[in-house]
From TrEMBL:
Keyword annotations: Cell membrane, Disulfide bond, Glycoprotein, Immunoglobulin domain, Membrane, Secreted, Signal, Transmembrane, Transmembrane helix
Keyword Plastid belongs to the record: no
Name by which UniProt lists this protein: Immunoglobulin V-set domain-containing protein
SUPFAM superfamilies, per database record: Immunoglobulin
Coarse class of the protein's main subcellular location: membrane
């Protein structure tokens, strides 16, 4: 089961508070951003936080990390100011903290999710 709870924030980008999925299942995450002409055309991304950096999982520029190849998609809806990330075939190592953003990782606008993808049996 997947729970997506948008978080209103003073941050120009925001997303879900918690994302939960079943092992082998899928989750869909919505990230909201200001509808400006710059944001409309800039790179959107979903990254997995590590100790030193946020490592890109998938981006709208066509990149998908090897661990997520064939099971992650990103779709931008610029007229609505939303992009979605879908991750399927969830595995335990997907449990982590993530960030959605626009531009370059850790340099553009981003939302550090106070959430995890939690994979349960």
């Amino acid at each position: 089961m997947c729970f997506l709870l948008p978080v209103a924030s003073s941050n120009p980008i925001f997303g879900p508070r918690q994302v939960t999925g079943l092992l082998g299942g899928s989750v869909t995450v919505k990230c909201y951003y200001p509808r400006t002409s710059v944001n409309r055309h800039d790179r959107k991304y979903w990254c997995k936080e590590s100790r030193s950096q946020c490592v890109t999982v998938i981006s709208s520029s066509g990149y998908t990390a090897q661990d997520f190849s064939g099971r992650a998609t990103i779709t931008d809806f610029p007229e609505q100011g939303i992009f979605t990330i879908e991750i399927s075939k969830l595995v335990e190592k997907d449990t982590s903290f993530y960030k959605c953003g626009i531009g370059l990782n850790d340099r553009g606008l981003s939302f550090k999710c106070p959430c995890c993808v939690k994979c349960k049996n």
